[in-house]
Design a protein that fits this description.
six-stranded parallel β-sheet, about 525 residues, single chain, four-stranded mixed β-sheet, about 45% helix, about 10% strand, alpha/beta
Length: about 525
Amino acid sequence: MKLNQSCLTNREAWEKASIKLPEFDWKKMIKTTDESPRWIHFGAGNIFRGFIAVLQQRLLEEGLEESGIIAADTFDYDIIDKIYTPFDNMTMMVSLKPDGTMDREVIASVARGVKADVGNEKDFGYLAEAFKNPSLQMVSFTITEKGYALANFRGELFPVVEKDMEEGPEKACHAMSVVTALLLKRYLAGGVPLALVSMDNCSHNGEKLKDSVVSIAGAWTEKGYAPEGFLAWISDENKVSFPWTMIDKITPRPAEEVQRSLEEAGMEDMAPIITSKNTYIAPFVNAEIPQYLVVEDRFPNGRPKLEKAGAYLTDRDTVNRTERMKVTTCLNPLHTALAVFGCLLGYKSIAAEMRDEDLKALVEKIGYKEGLPVVTDPGILSPEDFIREVIEYRLPNPFIPDAPQRIATDTSQKIPIRFGETIKAYLADDQLDVQSLTAIPLAIAGWLRYLLCVDDEGNPMEISSDPMLSELKEQLKGIKLGEQPEEKEGLEEILSNPVLFGTDLVSAGLSHKIEAMLYEMLEGPGAVRKTLHQYVK
C-alpha cells in the first residue's frame, strides 16, 4: 500500500487496514484549484498538514468547497521534493489517543506542493498566476514567528532583508520579501482584495505579518521597484487584510511507534527523513486530537466556510483574548516550565513529566492558582475547562512524543509573554499581590539554572538553541554549581531587563525571590529537585 493517488482506486485494502480515505473527487479538486485557486498556504510542515489541511478536507467532503490548497514552502525545499511530490501531495494523518489507539486518515486536500523560490521558474510562475487570479481569497502562513522577523533583537536588519530591499522583488529571498513580490503581481493585475492570515503560534500574529510586508513594500516603493499606489493598497485593510488568529494543536516530530504501526498495517515508504535544512519530517503526521483555531473574520474577498470545519470566526478582540488566555496563562507557561525543569531532571517526554508529582504540582500552581486570577476570558472558550483539558488530558497523553528539549528552544523569546504578562497583570491590579507569586518566579529561576548547561546530577547538559544564548551565558558566567557568589550584579542586570521578562523584575520586587530560588538550586547535585519540591509541596 503506497500513499498516493492509487489509494483512491484501491479502497478495499485501505479500509481493511482501518485507514479513512478522502470522500471527494480528487482529480476534479486539482483541476478546480489550478483554474480558480482560493487558498494558498506558506509553510508546508506538520501543523499545516495535520491541522489546517484537514479543515479544507472536511469542507471538500461536505461539498462546501471545490478547490484545495496550494502549499508553498519558502525555506526547506526538500519538504516539497521528498514529502509532497512522491506522495501526490497527500499526508497520512495519525491522531493519537491517550489510551494508545490511533485514528488514521489520508489527507488529500493539497492540490499542489510548490517551492516559493523566485529562481524556480515553474513553481514561482505557478504561484504568481495563482496570486494574480481574482478567485484567490486567502493566503495563510505557518512559518514560525522567526519567519516574519526582518531584524535582530537590536533592531538591525538581517543582511538578507537588506539585500532584498536593495535588489527588489525579482531577486527576493526572505519569506516576507517573496510574499510581497507576489502581492505586487496581484496589485499590477488589478489589485483584487485578499486576506493574509498568519496561523502561527505567536501574539498578534497578523500585526507581525503586516508590519513586515508593509516594511518591504515601503522600501521597494521608495526605490522605484513598485508604483506609489502599491504601498497604499497593501496598507488598506479593505484591500489587503491581516486577520489575527489563535492556533493550538500539538504536532510533535514523527514517532517510531507510529511508523511501525503504519508499516504493520501494510503501508510502504513511511520512514522519516532529515532534510538538508535539518527538518525531521515524515510522510505521516502524528498529533493529539484536541485542536483550536480562532480567526478574526476579516476577509475582503470572501473565504472558505472554516466555521463549518470547527474553527471559530469572530472579532479581533475575541481572538486577542483567546490568544492571551492560551499563551499567558492556560497552556504555554505550563509548557515552558515543564521544558526547563524536564531538561534539568533528565526527562525525555512531557507526558512522563506529568507523572512526576512535583512537576504536576508546579504546573497546577502556575495555571490554576497564579494564572486564572488574571486570565482574559474570551467568551467563546472556558478558561477553566481549557486548562483542565491541558493538565488532565493533553499534557499527560503518553502517546504524544513531545520532548522538553524541543519546547525549550528559543525560551528567551517566550518568557516575556508566557510569564511577564501575568506578572504585569498582578502589578496593575490593586486586589492582587505580586509577592504572592511563587511558581512563576520558580519557573524563571529554573530557566536561569538551565542556562548554566549543567543538569541536576551535576553533569554537562546540552541546551536548546536560543537567539540570546551567547549573551545570557556571558552574563551568567560567574555563577557555578556548588558556589554561592557574593556579588550578584550580573543576575540583577538580567532580571531588570524588560525585553527578557516583559517587565523589570527588580522594580517589580521579585528579583530577590528569584535569586534565592536560583541559589538554592545551585547548592549541589539534587538541589533542583529539592528546591522544586520545597516550593510546590
